[in-house]
C-alpha cells in the first residue's frame, strides 16, 4: 500500500511489532509455538479489531487500513498468519449475522475476550472444489447435529469460535451445487471434547493447523448465521476481503525481503567490494522491488473498490495473485543475495521464505485465480 497513507497507523503497528524481535519469531518457529504474546499485544492495541465497527467496540476502519496493518506486521519480519483470520471471519458475522449475534459476539471479539480465529471450510475429499464438501449439519429440534471431517483448519486450538461451512441439504436434493450449504458460528469451547476431535498437522511453517473430526457435534440452532442454505454465498462474500488482506501480507513479506537483501548487498564484501556493486546482484533486487510495488498498487485498488462497496472480484483475485508471486520472487531473490546465509535460520530469510510460500496455495491457489480471471473477466470457455 502507498507508504504515505495511514502514516500514523503504520507507526502504531511498527511500535507493537518492535516488542517482538526476529529472535522472538525464530524461537516460536523452532518450537512450533503459537505467538500468544504477540496476538495478545495486537488485540490489546485494538489493531485486530480494525474492521469491527465502532458501535461494536472496534476501530471502524476500512479494508485499506486493515491492509496497512497486516503489511506492516509482515514487513517487520513477523508473521500475521496466527492473528489475521479474525479480520475476515468477523465479516461473515458482521454482514450476515443477526443483530443478537453481532451484539453478543463482536464487542467481545474486539476486546479480546473472545477469539474468532478459526474458519472451517477445507475437507480432505473436497479440497478446492468447495461445493463438494460433505460435512453435514442436520436440524433436530433446536439444534443441528454435525458430522464430517475438515483438514488444515488453522488456529483452532487458540480460538474460542469457528466459522464453519457445512451441508444442510444433501447435494442430490439441490438445484445448484452451491445451494444447501450453511454457515455456523461454532463455540469451540463447547464442541471440543463433545464430539469434536482435533489432531494437529505439522506443516512447513509455524502455523497451528489441524484435522477436525465431527462426530454428532451438537450446535444450537441459534449458531446458524443468516439463512439456512445460503452459506456458500456468505463465504464467497468474505473471500474478496480475505484475498485483499492476504495480498497485503504478501506485500509486507516482499518489502521485508527487499529491505533485508538491499542492506546485505551493501554490506557484504566479496572480491574486495560490496556484492551489491555487481549488476547480477542488483537486478534481481530491483526487479523484485518493481513487482512488489506494482502488486501493491493492485492491492490498493482492490481495497478501495471494496471500501466503496463496488464490485472487486477481479481486482481482489489479481491482487492476491500478483502479490503472492511478487513476494515469492522476492523470497527467492533474498535467498540468492544472502548466499549460504539465506539457508541459515539465524538470518530469518529461510523462515520467511517458508512462510511466504504458503500464499501460492492458500487460501486459494494460483491456478484457481487464473481460472477465475480467464472465465469471469476474459469470458473464456468454462473449464470445470
Ligand atoms: C498451512 C495451511 C493453513 C490452512 N488453513 C486453512 C483454514 O484455516 N481453513 C480452511 O478452510 N482451509 C485452510 N487451508 C486449506 C487451503 O485453503 C487449501 O489447502 C487450498 O485451498 C488448496 O486446497 P487443497 O489443498 O485441497 O488442494 P487441491 O484442491 O487438492 O488442489 C491441488 C492442486 O491442484 C490444483 N487444481 C485443482 N483443480 C484444478 C483445476 N481445475 N485446474 C487447475 N488446477 C487445479 C490446485 O490449484 C492445487 O495447486 C490451509 C492450508 C494450509 C497448507
Automatic annotation (TrEMBL):
Name of the protein in its database record: Acyl-CoA dehydrogenase
Stretches assigned to the Acyl-CoA dehydrogenase/oxidase C-terminal domain: 229-362
GO molecular function, one term: flavin adenine dinucleotide binding
InterPro entries in UniProt: Acyl-CoA_dehydrogenase (IPR050741), Acyl-CoA_Oxase/DH_mid-dom (IPR006091), Acyl-CoA_Oxase/DH_mid-dom_sf (IPR046373), AcylCo_DH-like_C (IPR036250), AcylCo_DH/oxidase_C (IPR009075), AcylCoA_DH/ox_N (IPR013786), AcylCoA_DH/ox_N_sf (IPR037069), AcylCoA_DH/oxidase_NM_dom_sf (IPR009100)
Gene3D superfamilies: Acyl-CoA dehydrogenase/oxidase, N-terminal domain, Butyryl-CoA Dehydrogenase, subunit A, domain 2, Butyryl-CoA Dehydrogenase, subunit A, domain 3
Record domain Acyl-CoA oxidase/dehydrogenase middle: where: 118-217
Pfam family, one: Acyl-CoA_dh_M
Species lineage: Bacteria, Bacillati, Actinomycetota, Rubrobacteria, Rubrobacterales
Amino acid at each position: 500500500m502507498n507508504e504515505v497513507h495511514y502514516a500514523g497507523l503504520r507507526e502504531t503497528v511498527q511500535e507493537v511489532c518492535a516488542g517482538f524481535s526476529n529472535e522472538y519469531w525464530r524461537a516460536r518457529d523452532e518450537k512450533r509455538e503459537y505467538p500468544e504474546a504477540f496476538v495478545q499485544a495486537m488485540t490489546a492495541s485494538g489493531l485486530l479489531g480494525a474492521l469491527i465497527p465502532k458501535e461494536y467496540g472496534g476501530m471502524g476502519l476500512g479494508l485499506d487500513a486493515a491492509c496497512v496493518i497486516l503489511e506492516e506486521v509482515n514487513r517487520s519480519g513477523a508473521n500475521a498468519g496466527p492473528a489475521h483470520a479474525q479480520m475476515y471471519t468477523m465479516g461473515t458475522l458482521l454482514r450476515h449475522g443477526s443483530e443478537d449475534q453481532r451484539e453478543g459476539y463482536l464487542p467481545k471479539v474486539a476486546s479480546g475476550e473472545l477469539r474468532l480465529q478459526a474458519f472451517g471450510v477445507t475437507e480432505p475429499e473436497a479440497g478446492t472444489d468447495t461445493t463438494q464438501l460433505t460435512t453435514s449439519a442436520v436440524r433436530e429440534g433446536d439444534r443441528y447435529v454435525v458430522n464430517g471431517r475438515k483438514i488444515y483448519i488453522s488456529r483452532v486450538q487458540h480460538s474460542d469460535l469457528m466459522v464453519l461451512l457445512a451441508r444442510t441439504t444433501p447435494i442430490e436434493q439441490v438445484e445448484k451445487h452451491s445451494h444447501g450449504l450453511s454457515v455456523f458460528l461454532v463455540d469451540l469451547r463447547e464442541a471440543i471434547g463433545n464430539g469434536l476431535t482435533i489432531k494437529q498437522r505439522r506443516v512447513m511453517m509455524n502455523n497451528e493447523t489441524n484435522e477436525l473430526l465431527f462426530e454428532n457435534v451438537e450446535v444450537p440452532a441459534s449458531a446458524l448465521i443468516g439463512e439456512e442454505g445460503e452459506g456458500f454465498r456468505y463465504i464467497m462474500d468474505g473471500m474478496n476481503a480475505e484475498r485483499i488482506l492476504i495480498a497485503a501480507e504478501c506485500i509486507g513479506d516482499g518489502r521485508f525481503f527487499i529491505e533485508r537483501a538491499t542492506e546485505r548487498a551493501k554490506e557484504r564484501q566479496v572480491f574486495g567490494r560490496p556484492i551489491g556493486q555487481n549488476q547480477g546482484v542488483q537486478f534481481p533486487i530491483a526487479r523484485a522491488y518493481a513487482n512488489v510495488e506494482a502488486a501493491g498498487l493492485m492491492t490498493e485498488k482492490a481495497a478501495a473498490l471494496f471500501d466503496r462497496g463496488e464490485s472487486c472480484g477481479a481486482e481482489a483475485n489479481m491482487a492476491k495473485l500478483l502479490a503472492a508471486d511478487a513476494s515469492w520472487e522476492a523470497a527467492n531473490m533474498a535467498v540468492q543475495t544472502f548466499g549460504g546465509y539465506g539457508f541459515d535460520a539465524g538470518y530469518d530469510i529461510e523462515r520467511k521464505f517458508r512462510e511466504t510460500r504458503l500464499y501460492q496455495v492458500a487460501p486459494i491457489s494460483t491456478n484457481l485465480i487464473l481460472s477465475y480471471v480467464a472465465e469471469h473477466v476474459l469470458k473464456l470457455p468454462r473449464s470445470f
